[in-house]
Amino acid sequence: MSYDMLLQRALALHDAGQLDEAEAVYRQILETAPEQPDVLNLLGLVAQAKGAQDEACRLFATALRKKGTDDAAICYNLAYSLRLSGKMHEAVDFLQRVLLLKPDLKEAYNELGLALWDLQQPETARENWSKASALDPSYAAARINLARSYEQENPVRAAEELEKVTAVFPGEAAAWYYLSRLCYLNGDYAKAWDAAIKAKEQAPASDDARVMLALLSLQEKQEANAKIYFMKAVMLNPGNIDAVLGLANLNSREGNFEEAEKGYLQAIELDAENFDAHNNYAEMLYRQNRLAEALEEYRKAVIINPKAAEVSNNLALILKDRGEYEEALGLLFNAFILKPNMEETAVNLAETLTLFYRCEPQKTVELAEKWLEYAPDNVFATRVCAALKGQKSENNQIYAQKLFDHFADRYELVMQNLGYTVPLAMGRIAGSLKGSVVDLGCGTGLVGKVLKNSENTLTGVDISAQMLKKAQEKGVYDCLAQDDIAAYLRRNGNFDWAVAADVFGYVGDLSEMVALCRGKNLLFSTENAEDTETYKMSESGRYRHNPAYVRKLLQENGFEKINAEELLLRSENGIAVSGTIWKAESR
To answer: What is the crossing angle of helices 106-118 and 88-101, to 10°?
Structure first.
């Protein structure tokens, strides 16, 4: 077959999108005519279309050398691939050579603008996009890029400019897509929906438009619709990492871990440096208790983005669980410095310092003191520092509220793992309580579930709104109130029984609490401490009480029938915690 016939066949295959077949014919031509720069250029375009930008650059550069002189088309193709491969300075050089040869080539100005934008030269980039638009007012790409360039510094202006573009070019899908994305980021979801739908209408095969519709569906908690949009986007373009990752996240959330893992691995294959892919995959692995694998993925995420406080916190949790407290503390302090208002980190810091204290008490106290010095207003730093130094600390409502809001979702699982015996023991000791019962510090309702019967009304009181949400799900309370327990008792004295299960460990001085229940009946638990006359704070940040001090308070406040049963309440860091359940009746 002649050269011309082979070339025509290759071009036909290329135009039909049959890139592998076209490449084979182009290479067949080069076997007999290796000096053909035009064929090398065409081979470069195939590599470019297949995403092999380094190979494309090599082919275009070889074509230019074979040509022996500058060729505007080949220079432009080389510049385009150089930009896609991240070689911005080289791309700028070749685009400037293109414009010397063809000063009226609008596409070159547009590409030059993109390269200069990535080189953080926004004003020069805008000048080039403006030149491209001036050369051809119907050239939408340059207008879109110019409008988008204002997204960070002036998102309102960027949206206005994109709306102007859509008015002039209503059939331009890219303009609608970028307008939708910007409106989504600005919180204008109604306008974002409208623009995303128009983008899909103008480009029915657009995977990006479907990703946008998926994100909007998630914002409206329409997870089933979001999943469909992500799936269609992946079908249209398996290389769309946002779609692949979005679908993996949904599968993970639904507990479909096998499919989620496939998605995360696919996303990482597409972009090994994608922070979200590694971080979200690590979170899924952690939920499955695959700690070694989760640790590896979190480490990769930290390397990619060392300033991500959440990742440092999550990585530290795994290290804490493995007993590597010192390294965990380093990561937690790093997370705290990066994001001081992230309360989860403060809670985890306090817990890890408590665990480390058993290994290195002096060093732990020094770390706690440095934390308090750095963050003197942080309630967790204040609490843990006092606890580790054996100092008494005032009852702090904010501390309790923040602690249990954070703890609510995993409270019952954690207590189960600690062998928590209080609810069942209280139910046994209480028998069938009659009348009005107030469950002080009700938490998730574990004790309320045991005490509720047809002969009583049950009110749950807790300072944590998140705990009360969990308690409401039990369906055993006649009434729930968010309040500090002492404040509630001061205002509400019409009850027969006050119950406080595993609550007084956060109170310390019990004199007011017992006095507020004078004339009523009490059922509560305390942790035992024999090495203090009254109460002391343990290194865990919880108070322990001398049973003699508790009994004396009850007697002084007129409780006549006092029953005290000692038992093991739970384990703490592998050590059994002894305590007492008290049943005190006034009459």
So the answer is: 160
Cα–Cα distance, 456 to 499 (Å, whole number): 13
pLDDT tens for 425-448 read 888 888 888 999 999 988 888 889
Contact 509, 551 (CB under 8 A): no
Beta carbons of 217 and 237 less than 8 angstroms apart: no
Q: What is the 3-state secondary structure (H, E, C) of 319-377?
A: HHHCCCHHHHHHHHHHHHHHCCCCHHHHHHHHHHHHHHHCCCHHHHHHHHHHHHHHCCC
Enter the pTM of the model.
0.69
Listed in sequence order, the residues at least 6 apart from 215 whose beta carbon sits closer than 8 Å to its beta carbon are 184, 226, 246
Are the beta carbons of 536 and 391 closer than 8 angstroms?
no
Q: Which amino acid is at 407?
A: F
Q: Are 25 and 13 in contact (CB under 8 A)?
A: yes
Residue 408 per-residue DSSP state: G
End-to-end CA distance of the chain: 112
Give the residue carrying structure tokens 């904010």: 398
Residues 368-376: contacts with CB under 8 Å, at least 24 apart? 371/333, 371/336, 374/337, 375/336, 375/340
Exposure b/e, 532-550, CB count within 10 A at least 16 = b: eebbbbbbbbbbbbbbebb
> 117, 91 in Cβ contact below 8 A?
no
Q: Work out the pLDDT band at 406, boundaries 50, 70, 90.
A: low
Residue 296 exposed, middle or buried by CB count within 10 Å (0-12, 13-18, 19+):
middle
Joined tokens for residue 165: 């573009």
